[in-house]
Design goal:
Blueprint (H helix, E strand, L loop, with lengths): L7 H25 L4 H21 L10 H13 L4 H20 L26 H9 L8 H14 L3 H5 L6 E2 L4 E5 L5 E5 L2 H13 L25 H14 L8 H14 L4 H8 L4 H4 L7 H11 L4
Antiparallel strand pairs: 1-2, 2-3
Helix pairs in contact: 1-2, 2-4, 6-8, 6-10
């Protein structure tokens, strides 16, 4: 039986109720989960879509009143909006996160999203580059141009360490431990990890530091960042994306390439060369070994056996 909104005061009270809990959820994501501003906004967008559904259907329901049947109706509603399966799955994930927060705060005792199923998604393998393509792309860098040596050091680091682009641009000189062949990076959720780095990347970084970076007028608060732009500020994510796109065009590589392509290639080449899946998981900074699976192009039987071997519940 549907509960309809009949009185404006009730409606306002319900909206206020949602706003209070959403505000608490925002603080939880920012302070306790240490998520980026963009990630927090994405979660809030998902929850606000549920509020929009309730308003559209004229349901006078607070977060504590929501049941599985309402969420299943919500799924039908967003499907009618012609959202893609990926968008629907992401939205359900955001709403599940909201109700986990309510459960954690003892605001609710039963999670209505526990049995909610999102649309099944096809696992799409990411594009990777062969070793020959990576060499071709790096060799296309013009070292006589401004930024050439820095770009070579950046790409060698991306491939040598399998870094996310955010980890690359925030890499600090104080976190380079070349005597031990390691660097320390800060990943998602401000989690730090040590990552091995190869001799080729070390050589290019040292050339950049000793012959290029030392001549830049470094801006205040940017002294410890390794990769700088021509104005002496930390290099931006967009600049890294643009650099790689331009080099791919120059090297006549037709694949869709981004900084993350180097991360995919790093993991795939390691696994194909015989590296342990768990070791690759640690280097990539994945919480779950199942996340690492998508970075590989190996046969399904090998992946299944590796995950069964390392998963604690298997």
């Amino acid at each position: 039986m549907r509960t309809k909104i009949n009185h404006l005061p009730n409606q306002l009270a319900t909206i206020l109720n949602w706003n209070i809990y959403i505000k608490g959820f925002k603080s939880f994501l920012s302070l306790e989960k240490s998520l980026s501003e963009n990630s927090v906004e994405a979660y809030l967008h998902d929850v606000n879509k549920l509020v929009q559904f309730l308003e559209d259907k004229k349901y006078d329901l607070s977060p504590k009143d929501i049941q599985l049947k309402h969420l299943q109706e919500f799924l039908v509603w967003i499907n009618e909006l012609e959202m893609t399966a990926t968008s629907q799955a992401r939205m359900i994930s955001g709403i599940k996160g909201f109700y986990k927060y309510l459960l954690l705060e003892n605001i609710i005792s039963v999670d209505p999203t526990a049995l909610l199923e999102a649309p099944r998604l096809a696992r799409k393998l990411p594009d990777t580059l062969s070793l020959d393509e990576i060499n071709k792309l790096i060799d296309s860098i013009d070292l006589s141009k401004k930024g050439g040596q820095r770009n070579k050091a950046m790409l060698e680091t991306l491939y040598s360490c399998g870094l996310r682009v955010s980890e690359l641009v925030n890499l600090k000189i104080s976190n380079l431990f070349f005597n031990e062949d390691y660097i320390k990076v800060t990943g998602k959720g401000d989690k730090e990890r040590l990552v091995p780095i190869g001799s080729v990347a070390i050589k290019q970084i040292e050339i950049y530091k000793d012959e290029v970076r030392c001549h830049l007028p470094v801006k205040k608060d940017n002294e410890d960042f390794l990769f700088l732009n021509s104005r002496g500020s930390k290099i931006s994510r967009i600049h890294v994306f643009t650099t790689i796109k331009d080099l791919a065009f120059k090297a006549q590589i037709k694949k869709r390439i981004s900084p993350h392509t180097f991360r995919h290639s790093f993991a795939s080449h390691l696994i194909e060369g015989g590296a342990d899946l768990r070791a690759v998981q640690e280097m990539l900074g994945h919480e779950s070994i199942t996340t690492t699976e998508i970075y590989t192009h190996l046969d399904r039987d090998y992946l299944r056996e590796a995950i069964i071997r390392f998963h604690p519940r298997s």
